[in-house]
Design a protein that fits this description.
The longest helix has 15 residues. The chain has a 4-stranded antiparallel sheet, sandwiched between helices. About 40% of the residues lie in helices and about 15% in strands. By secondary structure, the protein is an alpha+beta fold. The protein has 13 helices and 7 strands. Keywords: Kinase, Transferase. Belongs to the NDK family.
Length: about 260
């Protein structure tokens, strides 16, 4: 290795997809082979398991202290010794002893989270037994359930940002969502937010059908408006949805993340 290499450990919500998008942008921004003055070349771990194996090659557990402005990197060079650079706010040792261990976090695997699934009008009344069976087979725990008649403002707030840019589409979606009673479920399980979104598939049932006929929107949806389901797209959105639809609380043993968000 003739040039230094920067090794970073990053933490974020939906980190793998977010970082992959950034790297894709870098790749598309290149007009030719990389040079010293061009955009950086980068590789990333693709799974939590690979992340864990690679992290222990370069870092010790003491390096991972969360909750403060703290960033570590390694410069690797064939011509110089291994150098660790740390940019950090002041962190005393008593606080360090209470900090979360990211090694332990990675080793523990998928975190138990809650998310929200809204079954749109006309779907749950005909297909509820099958939907509940699918949830059971996917090992989701139903920790909240209620019927609700959505107000137009609430229905509009559930729409994807790209739909909200089109007034005609907003009107069509809101008219459908407020046309009857919807069923709202709060689901709990390992990595529940991403797992649910993966099961639902794209907003367009035709695209979902082309990708995989077993996707839930492919099975229950008929159009981009009547596509069967709404699901929380991220954990912050799931927290918002839980507070919106279940202000009275949930019938589950509160997981750590829900406690931290005061759900």
């Amino acid at each position: 290795m003739s040039n230094p290499v920067l090794v970073c450990v990053l933490r974020s919500i939906d980190a793998f997809r977010a970082l992959a998008g950034i790297l894709k942008g870098w790749t598309q921004g290149r007009d030719g082979p990389s040079t010293a003055d061009s955009l950086p070349q980068a590789v990333m771990a693709l799974t939590p398991e690979v992340t864990f194996r690679q992290a222990i090659l370069f870092f010790t557990e003491a390096d991972f202290v969360t909750g403060k402005a703290r960033f570590y990197c390694l410069l690797l060079s064939q011509n110089t010794p291994l150098t660790q650079i740390c940019f950090s706010s002041s962190v005393d040792e008593s606080w360090r002893s209470r900090a979360e261990s990211l090694f332990s976090y990675l080793h523990a695997g998928a975190q138990v989270l809650c998310t929200v699934l809204l079954v749109k009008p006309g779907v749950w009344s005909r297909r509820l037994p099958r939907i509940l069976r699918n949830l059971h087979l996917e090992k989701f725990s139903v920790v909240g359930m209620k019927h609700t008649d959505l107000e137009p403002a609430t229905a509009s707030g559930l729409l994807p940002s790209e739909v909200q840019q089109d007034p005609a589409a907003v009107e069509a979606h809101c008219a459908y969502l407020t046309s009857g009673t919807a069923l709202v479920l709060c689901l709990q399980g390992p990595n529940a937010v991403k797992k649910l979104m993966d099961l639902l598939g794209p907003e367009d049932p035709k695209l979902a059908q082309a990708l995989d006929p077993s996707l839930w929107r492919a099975q229950y949806g008929t159009s981009t408006v009547q596509n069967g389901f709404y699901g929380s797209k991220s954990y912050p959105v799931a927290v918002r949805d839980m507070k919106l639809f279940f202000p009275e609380g949930l019938c589950c043993a509160q997981c750590q993340s829900a406690q931290e968000e005061e759900v």
